[in-house]
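Q: what sequence does this backbone want?
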């Protein structure tokens, strides 16, 4: 019998207990690492953001990791954080783990807000571009606050601000319909969400610094190694500090909920679930007692346990889908009650549809299921 979410969570350790940062304030979770928590207007009602004490181009300040969606409430909370938590120092750079709106939405505002500010005149620094280490960037003006992000997610974020890719509009509506979401009202609502991504991410900085798997970024007194991840976002970047024994996991490893793993219309045959499961295994060489700083939920210990829990969760869902498709061919929409026992609103349904396709595609790529397209244009999956 599957363990409940509470039973699984009880196997993890939360070193801060139930403590949460107050609005406009931060909690220090490791030396020079502060935790900020901001409200989101969704079922997933919060995001964790991080402040890292930093030195860049000879200037003292802070690096921000992730930003929240673009909304006035978040800007106001950031201004409180600037006043209360920066010790009078500037934000030197903004690191974004991936292109989803709650992570990149205010990157443009933050970079503009802190560019042109600084302590003292620009100072010359030696070029840092040797090997795999990036530190104080002479190529960036002393008063620039630059966005650091993977190239793939940077391009996809800029594309998202200019198109309807993946989040709404005609293409998304047609894609969801091809997987069984045929209800005219729901299709109409998806079609009407053409401005969904730009409403949460109105702009992306025109320039960025590229994060790559294995790249080591010197932030203050500590090295942080980039670990790429796939399946949840195009090229998600987590950050690992061996000296602090801290992993900023972004959305790749969350303590209580399973990360959304979806297939969208831009890459309809993607095997996103395999990419995700392979990606989280890249964290297994890290120490079992590492402090994990997730984007949602509370900081925790128990990284290896949580990775195994996520594998087990998806194995169980795949087994359930295999059994259900053995009884009759199913579309992704037909599979929603198999994967999700709770009631879903439209926002949740679009994510759930993407996740259902990801699981169906995993079984299809593995050769367990066959897929055929009916006269109604809907893809259905059946046991081989």
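A:
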């Amino acid at each position: 019998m599957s363990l409940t979410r509470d039973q699984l969570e009880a196997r993890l350790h939360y070193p801060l207990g139930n403590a949460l940062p107050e609005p406009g304030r931060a909690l220090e979770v490791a030396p020079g690492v502060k935790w900020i928590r901001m409200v989101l207007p969704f079922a997933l009602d919060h995001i964790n953001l991080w402040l890292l004490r930093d030195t860049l181009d000879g200037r003292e300040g802070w690096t921000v990791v992730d930003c929240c969606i673009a909304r006035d409430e978040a800007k106001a909370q950031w201004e409180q954080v600037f006043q209360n938590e920066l010790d009078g120092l500037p934000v030197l750079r903004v690191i974004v783990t991936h292109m989803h709106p709650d992570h990149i939405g205010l990157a443009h505002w933050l970079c503009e807000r802190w560019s042109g500010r600084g302590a003292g005149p620009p100072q010359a620094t030696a070029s840092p571009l040797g090997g795999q280490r990036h530190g104080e960037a002479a190529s960036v003006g002393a008063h620039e606050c630059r966005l650091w992000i993977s190239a793939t997610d940077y391009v996809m974020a800029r594309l998202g601000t200019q198109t309807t890719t993946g989040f709404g509009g005609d293409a998304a509506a047609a894609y969801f319909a091809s997987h069984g979401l045929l209800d005219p009202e729901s299709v109409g609502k998806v079609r009407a969400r053409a401005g969904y991504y730009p409403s949460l991410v109105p702009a992306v900085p025109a320039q960025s610094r590229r994060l790559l798997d294995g790249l080591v970024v010197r932030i203050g007194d500590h090295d942080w190694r980039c670990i790429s991840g796939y399946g949840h976002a195009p090229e998600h970047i987590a950050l690992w500090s061996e000296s602090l024994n801290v992993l900023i996991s972004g959305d790749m490893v969350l303590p209580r909920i399973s990360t959304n793993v979806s297939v969208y219309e831009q890459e309809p045959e993607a095997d996103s679930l395999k990419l995700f499961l392979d990606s989280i295994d890249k964290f297994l060489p890290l120490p079992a007692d590492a402090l994990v700083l997730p984007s949602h939920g509370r900081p925790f210990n128990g990284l290896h346990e949580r990775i195994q829990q996520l594998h087990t969760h998806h194995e169980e869902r795949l087994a359930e889908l295999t059994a259900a498709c053995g009884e009759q061919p199913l579309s992704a929409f037909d599979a929603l009650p198999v994967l999700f026992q709770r009631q879903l609103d439209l926002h949740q349904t679009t994510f759930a549809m993407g996740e259902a396709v990801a699981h169906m595609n995993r079984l299809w790529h593995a050769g367990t299921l066959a897929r055929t397209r009916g006269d109604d244009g809907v893809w259905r999956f059946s046991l081989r």
